[in-house]
Design a protein that fits this description.
The chain is of the alpha+beta class and about 130 residues long. The chain has one domain. Helices cover about 40% and strands about 10% of the residues. The chain contains five helices and two strands; from the N terminus they run H-H-H-E-H-E-H. The longest helix is centred in the last third of the chain and has 13 residues.
């Protein structure tokens, strides 16, 4: 289980200490570290799933990044989106400056939700 400080530093870094504390009390739950270890050692596991980035047989994919996200920084989100560019399927990237990993829990989350909804209604390839 993350401590309240770890939660703030990793997930809610763009929130005030007070807002981060409220979010921690409401949303933080203990979880398994298994996913982290599986991701970290996937390259060494022959049974790990491989992603076919070039496959055009998939739904449109929108990457949303928080400009202040320290857990999955915009540069990582952007490089992940670029991996899909060889596909004919639609891929898009949108960065929201000043937002942390808790992007949909931050004040003004409606802007992110509205963008995602409008994009989903009419998906299009955007600059990556």
């Amino acid at each position: 289980m993350l401590t309240e400080k770890q939660f703030h530093d990793i997930f809610a870094s763009a929130l005030s200490e007070e807002d981060s504390s409220k979010a921690y009390e409401r949303y933080a739950v203990p979880g398994s570290g298994r996913m982290v270890f599986q991701a970290a050692f996937a390259n060494f596991n022959p049974k790990a799933h491989k992603i076919n980035f070039a496959s055009g047989d998939r739904a449109p994919l929108l990457f949303i990044a928080g400009g202040a996200d320290v857990l999955v920084p915009p540069s990582l989100n952007q490089s992940n989106a670029k991996l899909y560019l060889e596909s004919k399927a639609i891929v898009a990237y949108k960065e929201f400056p000043g937002r942390c990993h808790f992007i949909c829990g931050q004040q003004g989350w409606e802007e992110v939700a509205d963008f995602a909804l409008e994009w989903a209604k009419s998906p299009r390839r955007t600059g990556i």
